[in-house]
């Protein structure tokens, strides 16, 4: 019998250029710094990728440092369950959790979906993001994307949103539309704003009010489903979302990994909430575990690699807005 080696954890930061600029209400980005966690053991290396949640004050450097703070625990044999208790939710735990899933898959020769007792994953239709801009620019971007992406996600900012949505609808008359208010409707009449979007076929509104001010939605009867994003990080946030939102956007960097994301999905569904699975800017390595979490979700927004100037190889293949896992690797 071959003696098992001590697991060794390492972390590094990689910079990936964005295709043009990615613009939301909080600003524009021309690159994304991702953190790679690697756990080496028994001749195998498991890898996970995470992107700092900037609105939580995280940076790539702080995430990498938090990853390395778990090194002693990993060397002592901490598994995924132990890491859930040891590390707080967030990008660092996501990176370590993904590396542990990947390492187990490589050690056992079984894909991660089988280890998680999931059905074999199927290709998924993902939204494609139209960055925040002037209506004419968003219309042009929507027109350019419409042939390849039947589901578009618009970034909004509050003032002028109706003009933006109308412009995108002109540019992509047949596309399905979801919108992300990015907390910009705080202080606005959410029900009236939603009603104004009905003629344009908008089917979901993400995070209309600021996280922590969700009580502003008490009694609101929006004609379009509302989805909690910043307001729902993990299962601890579900109670305040029920009866205020009709869906939750699960992101592994928020939840702290696939392990928590699967548990959050089960509890959200049991509470009657619809599921959306999203991502931060990331490469295919970052969305690989999210692809498993997104199986069966009503809305999928895993276009992170499409928004980069280039992706890592092997990467997901996107055809007609549908994402297919790479032929190599243990995630697919």
From TrEMBL:
Biological source species: Edaphosphingomonas haloaromaticamans
Residue span(s) of domain Mandelate racemase/muconate lactonizing enzyme C-terminal: 135-227
Family designation: Belongs to the mandelate racemase/muconate lactonizing enzyme family.
Highest taxon listed in the record's lineage: Bacteria
Gene3D superfamilies xrefs: Enolase-like C-terminal domain, Enolase-like, N-terminal domain
Active site: residue positions: 155, 251
Gene: ycjG
Sample GO molecular function, one term: metal ion binding
Pfam families per record: MR_MLE_C, MR_MLE_N
Keywords, sorted A to Z: Isomerase, Magnesium, Metal-binding
Textual note on the cofactor: Binds 1 Mg(2+) ion per subunit.
Documented EC number(s): 5.1.1.-
UniProt-listed NCBIfam families: racemase_DgcA
SMART domains reported for this sequence: MR_MLE
Lineage, highest ranks first: Bacteria, Pseudomonadati, Pseudomonadota, Alphaproteobacteria, Sphingomonadales
Protein name: Dipeptide epimerase
InterPro entries noted in UniProt: Dipeptide_epimerase, Enolase-like_C_sf, Enolase-like_N, Enolase_C-like, Mandelate_racemase_C, Mandelate_racemase_N_dom
């Amino acid at each position: 019998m071959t003696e098992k080696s001590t697991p060794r954890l390492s972390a590094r930061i990689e910079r990936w250029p964005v295709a043009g600029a990615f613009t939301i209400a909080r600003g524009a980005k021309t690159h994304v710094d991702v953190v790679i966690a690697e756990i080496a053991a028994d001749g195998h290396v498991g890898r996970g990728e995470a992107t700092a949640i900037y609105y939580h004050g995280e940076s790539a450097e702080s995430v990498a440092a938090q990853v390395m703070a778990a090194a002693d625990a990993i060397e002592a044999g901490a598994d995924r369950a132990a890491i859930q208790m040891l590390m707080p939710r967030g990008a660092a735990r996501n990176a370590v959790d993904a590396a542990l899933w990947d390492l187990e898959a490589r050690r056992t020769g079984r894909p991660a979906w089988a280890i998680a007792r999931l059905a074999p994953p199927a290709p998924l239709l993902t939204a494609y993001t139209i960055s925040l801009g002037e209506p004419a620019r968003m219309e042009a971007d929507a027109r350019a994307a419409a042939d390849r992406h039947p589901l578009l996600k618009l970034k909004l900012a509050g003032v002028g949103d109706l003009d933006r949505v109308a412009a995108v609808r002109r540019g992509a008359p047949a596309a399905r539309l979801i919108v992300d208010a990015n907390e910009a409707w705080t202080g606005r009449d959410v029900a009236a704003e939603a009603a104004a979007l009905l003629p344009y076929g908008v089917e979901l509104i993400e995070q209309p009010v600021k996280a922590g001010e969700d009580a502003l939605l008490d009694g609101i009867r929006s004609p379009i489903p509302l989805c909690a994003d910043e307001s729902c990080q993990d299962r601890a946030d579900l109670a305040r979302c029920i009866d205020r939102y009709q869906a939750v956007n699960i992101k592994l960097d928020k939840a702290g990994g696939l392990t928590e994301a699967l548990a959050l999905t089960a509890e959200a569904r049991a509470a009657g909430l619809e599921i959306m699975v999203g991502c931060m800017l990331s490469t295919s390595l970052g969305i690989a575990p999210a692809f498993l979490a997104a199986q069966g979700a009503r809305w999928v927004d895993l276009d992170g690699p499409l928004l980069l100037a280039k992706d890592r190889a092997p990467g997901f293949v996107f055809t007609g807005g549908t994402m297919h896992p790479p032929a190599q690797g243990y995630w697919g």
